[in-house]
Amino acid sequence: MRLTVVGCSGSFAGPDSPASCYLLTAEHEGRTWRLVLDLGNGALGALQRHTALADLDAVVLSHLHPDHCIDVTGLYVTRTYDPAGSASGRLPVYGPAGTAERLTASYEGLDEGGMDGVLDFRRLSTSVPTHIGPFVVRPFLVDHPVEAYGLRVEADGVVLAYSGDTDSCDALGPLFADADLVLADSAFVEGRDEARGIHLTGRRAAEAAVAAGGVRRLMLTHIPAWNDPQVCRAEAAQVWPGEVELARPDATYEI
């Protein structure tokens, strides 16, 4: 399984990166399967550097804040109006309750059918696995002001655990346990951001990974442009026993 970081800027698109978007690829049944986790603002353009949009097999949305989902509206346009012809079949889009309604409302002027003609909206349910080609996706309800999920993705015998947006919570234990790579929200900074129930700090991300047990790699992501990533890394390094990695836009990692 390969991870390509399409966008990793937290809360809004930054000068060097779109907002949250991660492309996973794996070989299965003689072809490459492509799964996108989140499609935040600015990500659709960058995603095209790494894959043809018509080749996507599914999109999974961790939650419905714009920095994680809004570019699905652009994806709808490409699958509906491309002069070369519409993409074949409806693309599965998994998300929390109300995903279809929220995204349809973001695109004024759609007919009564909304986006359902080209996008197949499906509901995520906590701990219920979803099978997409070689990928098994297990969502875990996490601690954020809206319905939000961390996503545990298994393929090729390895595990990526993506926290989505969350603060420390019990769900991070089974989400992170024995993961080959934990991709963890690190939007907040210790001593500066006091609100709870929204985001992790680098330190809290590392604490959750250590407590879960068996985690092999820790990578911090969702760092807003106003943060110094090295501060987030240093906070995590106080707890994490190995190298603390930082997600880099357009980088591809073997898991």
Describe the structure.
It is a single chain. The protein is α/β, with parallel strands linked by helices. It has a single domain (2-254), classed as Ribonuclease Z/Hydroxyacylglutathione hydrolase-like (Metallo-beta-lactamase, Chain A, 4-Layer Sandwich), CATH 3.60.15.10. Helices cover 20% and strands 29% of the residues. The chain contains 7 helices and 14 strands. It has helices spanning 43-47, 66-69, 72-81, 99-105, 172-176, 202-212, 229-237; strands spanning 2-7, 21-28, 31-39, 58-60, 91-95, 119-123, 130-132, 135-141, 149-155, 158-162, 181-185, 218-221, 244-246, 252-254. A 7-stranded mixed β-sheet has the order 6-5-4-3-2-1-14. The chain has a 7-stranded mixed β-sheet with strand order 7-8-9-10-11-12-13. Helix 6 packs parallel to helix 7. The radius of gyration is 17 Å and the shape is globular. The model has no long low-confidence stretch (mean pLDDT 96).
Number of strands: 14
* Share of helix, binned: 10-25%
**Biggest sheet: strand arrangement:** 6-5-4-3-2-1-14
Describe the global form. Answer: globular
What's the level 1 CATH class? Alpha Beta
Radius of gyration, CA atoms, in whole angstroms: 17 Å
Q: Provide the CATH superfamily.
A: Ribonuclease Z/Hydroxyacylglutathione hydrolase-like
**Number of separate domains:** 1
